[in-house]
Amino acid sequence: MSIKTLVINPGSTSTKVGVFEDETLLFEETLRHPTEEIAKYASVIDQKDFRKEIILDFLKEKNCDPKSLNVIVGRGGLLKPIPGGTYAVSDALLADLKAGVQGQHASNLGGILAREIGDALGVPSYIVDPVVVDELTDKARLSGMPELPRRSIFHALNQKAVARRFAKENGKRYEDLNLIVIHMGGGVSVGAHNHGKVVDVNNILDGEGCFSPERSGTVPVGDLVKMCFSGKYTQQEVYKKICGNGGFNAYLHTNDARTVDKMAKEGNAEAKLVQDAFYYQIAKDAGAMAAVLCGQVDQIILTGGIAYNDYTREVLQKYLGFIAPITVYPGEDELLALCQGALRVVTGEEEAKEY
């Protein structure tokens, strides 16, 4: 019997919704929420009923009877650090999503909406590989300053999904491989996947690692301290320089990698330098992850929107080809990744993890 899944992926001003039959997408839509509508609500959690109504109206518009659904899966939010996997939306998980234990973000609504809709229909609800997936080894947590341990916050959903895709396409198990996965979007995360666990990865939330279209990456610490105490900037302004206005935005006033590529090809020397430095830093981070895996790397996977660019593949092949073969899975299919996570549990391939 086929399994029909409703997938809910909330963003700050939109909610992506898809319905799948097994792994086949029946239909999807990005439901846009005007800024003035979102502004009516004091907090992210207050938007729950508004978004739920829009989702149910969308299903009605598509002539999809909610009673035909077998499972509901939502994007995971800023929970406590947890290992990767598919989690049933338990009461404890639901409470932490509502409380925003690591911050309030629209993604917190994914599990909340899944649980509420699922309960009303009498079907299970899950989240899959939220950004707070933490499988770091103990030694990877030490930063050099006890007060500031390293944290794991990254593109866990897509990194895990493409790692599993590569394993499946090559007749292997994700848990039997050593992989370096490089997700390149507004932020860049470079993860070392050791037999199914991401044992080291940069914290993209705080701009750690290589710089990216919107993030500064790791900057000279002493100079950053001086900037913070210079009196020229507020705490919020400094943080915005690190996460939001860093990287491409800081140098070239655009966060669009396609624009930077076009500028570089048209002879803009600064754009070419920034682009070259971008790939250089990614390669350095990937080289570090190769060391984490003791040089035993089965494959390097490039993913995210910037992986669509052929030049990205060419440059990173020159830098990293000596470590392992490279596979490219451009973009990110979060709806399918969420659906697959739920299906692995519903079909008995995996057990749901307890939060």
Overview in brief:
InterPro entries: Aliphatic_acid_kin_short-chain, Aliphatic_acid_kinase_CS, ATPase_NBD, Butyrate_kin. This protein is α/β, with parallel strands linked by helices and 355 residues long.
Walk me through what this model shows:
This protein is α/β, with parallel strands linked by helices and 355 residues long. The protein has two domains: 4-134 and 334-346, ATPase, nucleotide binding domain (Nucleotidyltransferase, domain 5), CATH 3.30.420.40; 161-330, 2-Layer Sandwich (Nucleotidyltransferase, domain 5). The protein contains 13 helices and eleven strands. It has helices at 35-38, 48-61, 91-99, 108-121, 138-141, 156-169, 221-228, 235-242, 248-252, 257-265, 269-292, 310-320, 334-346; strands at residues 4-10, 14-21, 24-32, 71-75, 86-88, 125-128, 178-184, 188-194, 197-201, 299-304, 326-330. The strands form two sheets. It has a six-stranded mixed sheet, sandwiched between helices. Strand 1 (4-10) and strand 2 (14-21) form a beta hairpin. The model has no long low-confidence stretch (mean pLDDT 95). Its EC number is 2.7.2.7. This is Probable butyrate kinase. GO terms for molecular function: acetate kinase activity; ATP binding; butyrate kinase activity.
Radius of gyration: 21 Å
> Overall mean pLDDT score?
95
Shape category: globular
* Percent of residues in beta strands: 15-25%
